[in-house]
């Protein structure tokens, strides 16, 4: 499966975003210094836990070097003296480092909230399969750049995967565990999944990485100080505890790691009536790339929309002929057998008024002009959510759907 690498502009924006977050952390550190200087020792002891400035110092020191590296590489990418292989290697480094830093920022903010006792468990209806699809989309680029395989194992069907759980907490847990696996896995696979075991949901992340050191494994399984585990695992352990579970680990040096925990399984039956609502709006997505299709499907799933997929232009045309009530077509320009240009023209010959939106990761000169002759709109890959909603709303008005 071929996956689109991020463009230079995408990478540059990521670096800018990370740079802004560092500035925000620096301001927070300065504010805490001023606050600590103005408050007496007794007042500090009576106040709730405030994140120690030493932790902030540690955070800033850890991210300064990789961030400086990212900024430097982003500048080098803009020079014409680099050949394709060099630019590709730099892009890989930037993509991996930015992903790790973004995960670290997330862990830091979570750690800060836990220390202040700001985290409250709020259970809601969550589709576990959709949550895992979202995680896969989020991490697939980083996994791809490292040459790894990302597996997702789902223990329930789409018809009964809705449970009551805290979406934010479970997402934070998996984000940290997947980031940890990415950091220490250099070949092989990373796998995330869940299964129902004795009225509990067993969640897990395993990899074929370097494994945990024996002393770290013992600290994780013991009741020792959380600070000894590091920011990420300490946060995960506390989050799992909030969900009434216990974080467990199985690992041997150079033999991979398995993190898992069990939480109460509370199935939600409230969505049954919603799922029985007849879907009336059909959308054809013609795309041969699995990840690209998953992203579009996720962006489009709303209300009474039925998604139909085609993996090449010929299949797209045949599907449209058999489903003339299709309301919108999202057409990748470059597909096997029959490309998007030809498929769009064939469909337009059948129904000139059906809106067809082109999508492509390529930006060759004149391509947008060619698109305007056969298509009603254009989306660049990877698809931006706001641009996607603006284009689709023009023809379907998704905001008015159930």
Automatic annotation (TrEMBL):
SUPFAM superfamilies cross-referenced by the UniProt entry: ATPase domain of HSP90 chaperone/DNA topoisomerase II/histidine kinase (SSF55874), CheY-like (SSF52172)
Signal peptide extent: none
Catalytic activity line of the entry: ATP + protein L-histidine = ADP + protein N-phospho-L-histidine
SMART domains documented for this protein: HATPase_c (SM00387), REC (SM00448)
Protein's recorded name: histidine kinase
Domain Histidine kinase: 58-267
Domain Response regulatory as annotated: residue spans: 282-396
Protein keywords: Coiled coil, Kinase, Phosphoprotein, Transferase
Top class in the EC scheme: transferase
CDD domains the record matches: REC_hyHK_CKI1_RcsC-like
Keyword hit for Kinase: yes
Documented EC number(s): 2.7.13.3
PANTHER family: OSMOSENSING HISTIDINE PROTEIN KINASE SLN1 (PTHR43047:SF72), TWO-COMPONENT HISTIDINE PROTEIN KINASE (PTHR43047)
One GO CC annotation: plasma membrane
UniProt keyword Metal-binding present: no
């Amino acid at each position: 499966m071929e996956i689109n690498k991020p463009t230079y502009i995408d990478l540059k924006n990521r670096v800018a975003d990370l740079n802004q977050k560092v500035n925000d952390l620096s301001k927070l550190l300065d504010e805490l210094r001023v606050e600590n200087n103005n408050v007496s020792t007794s007042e500090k002891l009576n106040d709730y836990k405030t994140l120690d400035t030493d932790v902030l110092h540690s955070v800033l020191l850890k991210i300064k070097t990789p961030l400086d590296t990212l900024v430097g590489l982003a500048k080098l990418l803009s020079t014409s003296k680099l050949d394709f292989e060099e630019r590709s290697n730099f892009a890989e480094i930037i993509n991996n480092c930015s992903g790790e830093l973004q995960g670290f920022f997330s862990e830091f903010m979570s750690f800060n909230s836990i220390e202040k006792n700001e985290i409250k468990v709020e259970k809601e209806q969550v589709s576990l399969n959709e949550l895992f699809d979202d995680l896969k989309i989020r991490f697939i680029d980083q996994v791809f750049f490292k040459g790894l395989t990302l597996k997702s194992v789902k223990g329930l069907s789409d018809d009964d995967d809705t449970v009551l759980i805290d979406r934010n907490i479970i997402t934070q847990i998996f984000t940290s565990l997947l980031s940890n696996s990415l950091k220490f896995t250099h070949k092989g696979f990373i796998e995330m999944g869940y299964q129902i075991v004795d009225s509990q949901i067993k969640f897990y992340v395993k990899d074929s990485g370097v494994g945990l050191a024996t002393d770290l494994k013992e600290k994780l399984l013991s009741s020792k100080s959380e600070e000894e585990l590091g920011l990420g695992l300490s946060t995960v352990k506390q989050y799992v505890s909030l969900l009434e579970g216990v974080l467990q680990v199985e690992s041997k040096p150079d033999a991979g790691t398995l993190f898992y925990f069990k939480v109460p399984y509370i199935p939600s039956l409230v969505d049954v009536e919603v799922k029985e609502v007849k879907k009336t709006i059909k959308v054809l997505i013609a795309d041969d790339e699995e990840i690209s299709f998953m992203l579009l499907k996720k962006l489009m799933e709303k209300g009474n929309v039925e998604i139909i997929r085609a993996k090449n232009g010929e299949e797209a045309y045949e599907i449209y002929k058999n489903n003339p009530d299709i309301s919108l077509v999202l057409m990748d320009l470059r597909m096997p057998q029959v490309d998007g240009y030809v498929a769009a023209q064939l469909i337009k010959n059948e129904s000139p008024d059906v809106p067809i939106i082109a999508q492509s990761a390529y930006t060759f000169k004149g391509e947008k002009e060619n698109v305007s002759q056969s298509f009603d709109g254009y989306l660049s890959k990877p698809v931006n959510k706001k641009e996607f909603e603006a284009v689709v709303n023009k023809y379907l008005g998704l905001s008015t759907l159930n």
